[in-house]
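Sequence in, structure out. First:
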Amino acid sequence: MNAFFDKANDESRWQAVETRDNRADGQFVFAVKTTGICCRPSCRARHPLRKNVLFFENVAAAVGAGFRPCKRCQPDKQTAEQQRIDRITQACRILESRSEPMVLAELAALVAMSPFHFHRLFKQVTGLTPHAWQKALREKRLREQLAQGEPVTRAVFDAGYQSGSNYYQQADKVLGMTAKQYRQGGERTVIQFVVGSCRLGEFLVAQSERGICAILLGNDGQTLVNELESLFPNSALVAGDELFSQRVARVVSVLEHPSQPFSLPLDIQGTAFQQQVWQALREIPVGQTASYRDIAQRIGKPQAVRAVAGACAANKLAVIIPCHRVVRNDGAISGYRWGVERKRQLLEIEAEQQEE
């Protein structure tokens, strides 16, 4: 029998089987030598002895080795949860293929669901309502069109805005600047910033006209200023005034006490996919973690684990968008824009504050 066996992952797989962890479903199956049956990790059947268990990458590999699928957990069929996720994925593909907005009832009918259940499931899977998802998609298209040098009017209509007046009412919020400025790479926008020290080391907080646009962490203030310049290459960077310094104090308070609420306006700029990921990150409770795979599943793109990691790496708002709460599937701490040790420190701070 050619079992999918990897000593580095064997114990974590067995632990998933023992705890019937449904998050492991689809990642592997286990087979029992004494019964000749293969199952999902979450199968509710009685646990076999560890010595009788083999692991396979998928059902096809297990069947090829002589095992038959369990009739109880049916590992050869999609789970009900995966079927629901597939429907939402289908709905997202439909939205991406159309330029005009779609109403909830029309979209729900195309995936054979009631509007009420579709709306609830869409929000659960993607982290956004169908309306908010379409809005984020239009914003992404607009940025892409403007970045390619398209005339403003053409870009507005190609992105899916129904009228010029409809767009211009939202322009500042969408881009954080005028469309013309965005098309020119953010030219002439002014960004205030302050550099200082806190419990996490050196920090830089920056603000555009629309809100806090960057919170950077590091070990050297000048390096952080250089990073800000690279993030906003065509903007005018100026030292923050007294009013902004008061806002920075509120940001620092949250950096050192992440469980505190944060109510300052944010200038969050990213693709539709990045915004989905960042919204999912903000829903992870303080003191808890999630894996990259968990986040990919929550936004309805279970295969986009690497893309989720990329969105975390692109985050410019440390702690406020808590990418430090994302860990590897085995719970190991790895990958953080501002250093793994700082990520570990943040998680320890949150754990301490939860115990207080």
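Second:
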Amino acid sequence: MIRTLKPAQLVFDTVVATLCLLLVIYVSVSSPSLGTSPVAGIGMSAALGVRRISPPIALGIAWLTSLVQVFADIGFDPSNLAILPVLYATASYGDRITKWAGLVSSGVGALIIAIYLPLDAGYAPDLGSVSILAQLPSITLTMLITFLSFLAVFVLSWTFGLLARTWRASREAGQARIIAERQRLDAEREAAREHERTRIARDMHDVVAHSLAVVIAQADGARYAKDADPDAVGTALEAISTTAREALADVRVLLAQLRHNQGESPQPVLADLDRLLDQLRASGLPIRFEQVGEPVAVGTSQELAAYRIVQEALTNALRHGDVAKQVDVRFDWADELGIRVSSAILAPEHPQGVGHGIAGMRERAELAGGWFDAGPEAGRWVVRAGLPSVFEPVTA
């Protein structure tokens, strides 16, 4: 296990290990009576220097140095204090095996020290004495106190490392939560912007497609009737002018929304439906409108969806259907607002379901909490939709 450290961390660890080694060498030269060992100093300084780069290697070096001291009867060395930051590093930076190996090392090391130090200090029992049994309680008590003392120090150092690891993990988790929350908010804002762009594109399609269909129908009618009925040309041109102005105003608002993300978009309601039907009738499309039941109040989104569905269905009938035959528009006010638009199919090779209109109508109905269906039926193209009178959000 090799960890990547920052340059400042590498420099710090190298300086600390070097100072530790220089201190041991200085003490061993200036005060030989203290019994310091260059071997222990070199080993423990090396373990201290690599404790954060590789905690398992540092623990291995510390164990090897300690065992050499025990078997070579070198004795305790001040550099042995480096085992404390090494145990700290095993708990703070080591992997799962190294972390628990550090804890086990605390107990085993304390046991070895408890056995070795009393014997090294002259507490060995006198084998020639008949009172050897009398010495056992004091020796046992000394070893027990030594074991518990070093175990407490070692485990405390290891525990500090574990607490630092936990605190660091908690801080990283907190930062990750903050980043995730920011990403979620960014995703929601982007989804809202995408939804708004989709809505604007849908409205643009409805406005432009309907207006152009009306303009084309009026222009064709004026062109055919200019000789037989010159007055009809003026009426047609007036309808073209009115339709174009309304479409231009709607498009300007939609473009302003795209540029500045502000402004009021066209929000037609069911009260505007009569004007829409009159406009299409003036374009040469015979329309019969009927309502079944008593109309009830519906939400704004349902009114907009109903208007756009009827507008798109009639526009498709004007563009692709047989304008010589009547188009039936029916509103059924029962448990929900049921919409049915039936128009004659002009030719099988020009089905009204081609393009984005069907998908747009279905999306509008579903977003308003309703349903949509369209298809041929007995030689006619039938569009059906149902919108709830009280909007209930659709759950996934």
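Remark: The mean pLDDT is 79.
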